[in-house]
Each structure stands twice: as structure tokens, then as C-alpha cells.
Amino acid sequence: MSIKMYPLQFEPILKERIWGGEKLKTVLNKPIVSNITGESWELSTVEGDVSVVANGEHKGKSLAELIEKLPNEILGTRVYNRFGKQFPLLFKYLDAREDLSIQVHPNDQLAKERHNSFGKTEMWYVMQADPDARIIVGFKEDSNKEEYVENLKNNTLVSILDDVKVKAGDVFFLETGTVHAIGAGLVVAEIQQTSDITYRLYDFDRVDAQGNKRELHVDLALDAINYNKVDTYKKYETIVNESNVVVDCPYFTTNFIPLSGVVKVNRNKDTFTVYMCVEGAFEIRYENVIYQYKKGDTVLIPAAIDGYVLNGEASILEVSI
Question: Most-buried pick from 56, 100, 169, 277 (CB within 10 A)?
């Protein structure tokens, strides 16, 4: 008996965070129940947080379960050959009511040695930005371990980090080792390697509802940090109805599609594709069925699907490997 493949949506995995707010509901229409909801995990196979299908005949099945049974059909041959039955990416939306902690992610080698995990290369697409919202990305100038430690000790770390004002549509690509923080007043789409390994360097001395500070990982971070100035901002084309390359790295390729009207898509079967709708609304027409999406929706196109039609007025992030 053949198993039906179709565009898959998943139940959002909602995460309370000390810095979270309510924009995941007011901006992206997520079913949050807390006024400190910071993250919606859209597609995940992180242990303990595995996405569950929300539509169609596979509703109620987990992404891990589908991949276990149908690795080539879901992931694609090239992805399966490289990663096995591991979904290699994690997709999120974030709402930063307050600044996130200043943090860094280890590379593949360190993450494997210390945590038996992938590293965490990631990118941010800014969906909404309050006036004067900013992010921290890397050092203002080339630094070193000694200067970093001295400033950390003196509570002056922020003074040597690069502080960048941002607006909707901005994209930042953060290789592992880049010290970073999403600033207050931002809603961000985040695409990253499948990893939940974060080293927290500084948390602005804040406390949670019980009066406790969050754990810092100062020593672990020392060998993970890239102390050189880095260029993280990505310029990209916005040609209508085209897949405009934004980020092309060993872990994922992200394109930006300004969709206006109808686009036919033909694919080979060696990788899955994920669409994140960051503005507007669109539909996918596949095998005489119409699947509808709006801002804040994420959809996984299994590798076995080789052709379909996009239709609508939307800004879409298109991600594959």
C-alpha cells in the first residue's frame, strides 16, 4: 500500500521565555496562552520537542515517526545519505519583548565532543521591528580572549560588541562562534541546525519570577567564541516570483520569494523544502487539492513531491539542503 505524500503542517511547540511576550499571537496568530511566550518551534526533532503533524491523513504522527518509516520520501536521498534518519534543521519564530541573553553556539566539532550534538549555525529574518530595535552580532573590532574576559568581569561586555539597528526584511547569518543577542522589540524567523546547545555569556543581571538568575556558561564559551569582527548582514535580491538566494551555506540554503500570482515549481527528489510565510498569504495546489497558508505558517514539502503550484500575494522563505 502506497503512503500518501502531501504538504505537511505541524502543531507549533510554544515555549515560555523570561524575555517573551504576546506578539506570536498578535503578529503571527499562534495559540499562545502565556504573556511571556518567546518561541514557536515550527519544525523540530530535538529530543523532547518533536513536531507532530497537524493536517491530513498523517495528522497526529510525529515528524520523527514519518522519517523513520519513509526517510527518502520525507528527507530526500541526498539528505538521508548525509544525515541518516535525522531531520537536520530546526525552524522557529521568536518574539523578543526584552533583550535575549548574550550567547554563543559551538561548532560541530565542539558540540559533538561535549554534547553529542550538531553545532548551531543559524540565520535570522526580521519579520517585525519596533522603532530603534537592534541586535548584537559579534565584536566591534577584532578582539581576543583576554580582552573579552576582562570586559566580562567588569560588566562592560556590551561596550566591545557590535550593536546594529534593524528593520523588517533584514537578514543576518550567524556562523558558530559569533557572539549574539536578539534585542527587544523584534519578531524573528530563525532557521538553524538541529541543536539546542547555547552558551549564555551575560544575561543583564535579570532574575526570573522566583528571583533566580539563569545559568551562565562562561567557561564553556571561551573556546567556542570567534573573537574576530564578522560580517553577518546579508543583502539579497527581491525579484518577483523568483527564488532569490539569501543564504547558501553547507547546512542549508534559504531563498526569498516575493510571490505575486502563480508560480509552477518543479523539483528533484534529493531534498525536502520548507516554506515559512513571513508576510501575506498563499496557497499550494498539489494533486487537485489546495492547501492554504498565512503569515506565520510553516510547511514541509516532502522530497517525494516533485511538482506543485504556488499562488498568492506573499513573502516566503524557501529552505532546502
Answer: 100
Asked whether the beta carbons of 183 and 136 are under 8 A apart, the reply is: yes
Q: Which of 17, 97, 134, 200 is catalytic?
A: 200
Q: pLDDT class for 60, splitting at 50, 70, 90?
A: very high
Backbone φ and ψ of 68, nearest 5°: -60, -40
What confidence score (pLDDT) does residue 268 get? 82
Which residue intervals of 86-239 are DSSP H helices? 108-115, 145-153, 218-221
Alpha-carbon gap, residue 88 to 194, rounded angstroms = 5
Is the four-CA dihedral 197, 203, 205, 211 of positive or negative sign?
negative
Please name every residue paired with 54 in a beta bridge, in sequence order, or none if there are none. Answer: none
* Helix residue ranges, H only, 38-190: 63-69, 71-75, 77-83, 108-115, 145-153
Strands (E), 145-193: 161-165, 171-174, 180-182, 186-193
Cell numbers of 264, please?
509552477
| Alpha carbon distances (Å) from 175 to 41, 147, 164, 184, 226 | 21, 21, 17, 22, 9
206 is catalytic: no
Q: How confident is the model at residue 317 (pLDDT cuts 50, 70, 90)?
A: very high
pTM tops 0.85, yes or no: yes
What three-state secondary structure class fits 252? coil
How far from chain centre, in Å, is Cα 92?
Answer: 4
Instruction: Report CA torsion sign: 63, 64, 66, 72.
Output: positive
H-helix segments, the chain: 23-26, 63-69, 71-75, 77-83, 108-115, 145-153, 218-221
Give 159's DSSP letter. G
Nearest CA to 18 out of 195, 218, 192, 200 is that of 200
CB atoms within 10 A of CB 288: 5
Q: Spell out the residues 6+ positions from residue 218 whose beta carbon is closer than 8 angstroms to its own.
A: 152, 201
Burial 109-148 (b: 16+ CB within 10 A, else e): ebbeeeeebbbbbbbbbbbbbeeebbbbbbbeeebeeeeb
Residues 6+ apart with CB under 8 A from 317: 125, 189, 191, 246, 254, 255, 256, 257, 275, 276, 278
